[in-house]
Specification:
Blueprint: H1 5-42, E1 56-58, E2 64-66, E3 116-117, H2 127-141, E4 148-153, H3 160-180, E5 188-194, H4 205-211, E6 213-218
Parallel strand pairs: 4-5
Antiparallel strand pairs: 1-2, 3-6, 4-6
Helix pairs in contact: 2-3
């Protein structure tokens, strides 16, 4: 036999051993398993634990997934408070803020009645005094609990006694005019000061004109 053929035969034999050995071991295991089963059947029957396979749900397309999963936490239902379509309705819009109170200023009520003025040595009501007396009468009538004293005044010209009489005439003519405008006579009183309480103390016609007056005092 040639020398070069011996190594090849040796290698081939090793390959055969490696290939056949596993097959021989498997056949022994099968036989021993069968023997174990036979010996077990001959003896007392041992309790067998049955394990149920997990349920598997098939998905179209051949795939599968396990259905035994941990339950997911579901969010609280929006209708838990009473249900129905009204429960899911959006909250009502807030009502518009109330309108702020008007800051418009109200004309202040006059603190006193306006005076009227007379010509020199006269006690007749002048035309320019009529509008003032009409406003004064309206104010007095709006204050039913008030009484008014009408004071007659004069400038310094003339005697003191004469001016006292003239002042009284001016107060009385003013009172009669207010009564004609609807002011009750019981709410009107008259008095005279003549030249004793001048409003202006200068000795000129402009100052004299301011002193010839009827002045109103509310009580």
């Amino acid at each position: 036999m040639p020398q070069w053929l011996i190594p090849r035969i040796f290698i081939a034999a090793l390959l055969c051993c490696f290939t056949v050995a596993p097959l021989m071991g498997c056949s022994k295991r099968v036989a021993s398993s069968a023997g174990d089963a036979a010996s077990t059947s001959k003896g007392a029957t041992a309790p067998v634990e049955t394990i149920k396979p997990e349920s598997v749900a098939t998905v179209p397309g051949g795939g599968a997934f396990e259905t035994a999963r941990e339950p997911e936490e579901t969010p609280p239902s929006a209708s838990r408070g009473g249900g129905g379509p009204e429960a899911s309705a959006p909250a009502a819009a807030p009502s518009p803020p109330a309108a702020a109170p008007s800051t418009a200023t109200v004309p202040a009520e006059p603190l006193s009645l306006e005076d009227i003025f007379f010509d020199f040595d006269e006690h007749a009501i002048r035309r320019d005094a009529q509008a003032t007396l009409s406003a004064n009468a309206a104010w007095i009538n709006s204050k039913p609990g008030k009484a008014v004293v009408i004071e007659g005044h004069c400038d310094e010209r003339g005697t003191q006694a004469y001016n006292l009489i003239l002042g009284d005439k001016r107060a009385r003519s003013t009172k009669r005019y207010l009564e004609d405008l609807g002011v009750p006579a019981t709410r009107l009183k008259t008095t005279t000061y003549g030249e004793l309480r001048p409003f202006c103390k200068e000795r000129d016609e402009n100052c004299y004109q301011q002193n010839r007056r009827a002045h109103f005092v509310v009580q």
